[in-house]
Amino acid sequence: MIDDTNLNLELPNFSGPLDLLLHLIKSQKIDIYDIPIAKITSQYLAYLSKWQTLDLKIAGEYFVMASSLLKIKSQYLLPKNDFDNEIIEDDDPREELVEQLVQYSIFKKISEFLDERQKSAPITVAKEPSVASQKKVSLLPFGEISSKQLARAFFCCFATVSTQK
């Protein structure tokens, strides 16, 4: 039986299996690059078993992730064999999962940022182009402008800004 005091979130609050997995990792303050797969898998399965309403379209994604976690966990349990005394490169079975979680985390942060920007959009007002920006500007080569010409151009800019207000 699952201890309900430790499980206080409802599954529908998550936007997908990676969101749930990322939540479990962050709530345990675990380094995303060093996931204790057995612990996370058992917590993930506990969340799934707590989910009372079973919508197969949504639940299917969560069960695919659960099976991936169980596969990674089983790879750790299997003995490693060296064939013909060749050195087998140690591939971490968690590597692909970690990459998915890192990418998901980045996109989630971007999504939250864009959501906040969208919520503040009614507050944002676009500035109409000023008259000064519509004037044709001629560029002079460096050193061919006197200080008087520069001062005159500067004051013309201020005069244009003052009349617009």
From TrEMBL:
S-adenosyl-L-methionine as UniProt keyword: no
Gene Ontology terms describing biological process: chromosome segregation
Keyword Oxidoreductase tagged: no
Keyword terms of this UniProt record: Chromosome partition
Full protein name: Segregation and condensation protein A
Protein source organism: Lactobacillus iners LactinV 01V1-a
